[in-house]
Amino acid sequence: MLDALRRAARNAYHLLLIGYAAALGAGLGLGSALWVLEGDYPFGERRAQAWLAWPSVGSPQSDPYARAILARSADVPLALGEGIAFHAYEDELGRPLDARCRYAISGETPVARAWTLTLYDPDGRLIETPQRRPGLTSAEVLRAEDGAVTIALAPDPQPGNWIQLPGSGGFQAVLRLYDSPVSGALGWLDDGAMPRIVRLSCTGEATS
Amino acid sequence: MRPRSRAILDSLGRNVGKLALATTIAIVLAAMTHIAAILMLPWLARQDAYARLAPTASAENAVLVAAPRAGGFGEVDAPLPETWLPLHDPALAVGACAYDLADGPLRVSAPDGALFQTISLHARGAGAYYAITDRAAVRGRLELVVATRDQLDAILAEEAAAQVETGPADAFGDLRVVAPTREGFVLVRTLAAFPSEAPLAEALVEAVSCTIEPL
Questions:
Q1: Would you call A82 and B133 a contact, using CB atoms and an 8 Å cutoff?
Q2: Candidates 2.60.120, 2.70.98, 2.30.30, 2.60.40; correct CATH number of B49-212?
Q3: What Å distances lie between residue A43 and A35, A81, B158, CA to CA?
Q4: Per-residue pLDDT tens for B186-210?
């Protein structure tokens, strides 16, 4: 009688263990996969100042994580021969981009047939402002006598090249170089080859 | 220690050992599930770019997916372009046509316009595998043929046979690309450097033809 009871308890314990292993395995496996897919591409990140790029994502050598992230986001990245996109989430001192502040993006841009600078909200939608211009192209931009470019990002109007910020929340900037040797991924850029993102001031604080 | 308490301790140790074994198995299972989920996702996704573009497979020309930001005089209040493409560059007109090479190779042909244009080829589940810009245009047209390895072999064999009969051909050869998988899509991007070029950029995208040419 006691033996039978003990055997039943052992069987129940084994069943419980099998269920536990299956549930934990599936949960951890799917959960970790989902967690990885929520973030940026995990491999092949290249950095130049505050700008991040993933050159291999648009190539036949893209890794399975990049492919899975693309399948989830429905994004179609620039292919290797088309160009390359640089993403900035922070200014040059590592502070997150804030739409209440004034920024100057200035310096040289790498060789390309054309480039565009576009601002998005943190969810990836184009920023909505009264100016109705979420970005600039290399053809539209005004240049200084020496060819340098300075683009002001601010909620209030600025002289020269100006993209209006919505005045609240965060934002991200994407610099796309079209038909650029950079996208060939032979070597990489010096920090000086990319424009700097400098925070000038924020509302509610003295000029920093 | 009395034999009875020793027996209880032994049984406890056995059961904790089994729990540790089950946890180890769970971690191995988790790793396998993780890898399987990542590898399967591009083939199971119903909302990825290929799935969304699949209805364009029957179209003769590229279908506009995302419009550039329009503007210029009198259009100050033009709304921002809306599209399912994430992080769309509002200076681009983006068009696409999906293909299935089951019935023969695909010929992509684009008129050479005045604007910067790129054509990229994307395989289902495997990402971009080829791209050219308008600089590759020959005699005013940008042409390429997308074929599977077998179809390309058939084309080459046919050409070789024709050359034996008539001598070397002097025509320009097509630009040929081998597709890694049968299904995929062609993506066309045209740059409107100024908002006033938006209508031209859209027209150039829609002028790109994608036709299956049965062997």
A1: yes
A2: 2.60.40
A3: 15, 20, 44
A4: 999 999 999 889 999 999 999 999 9
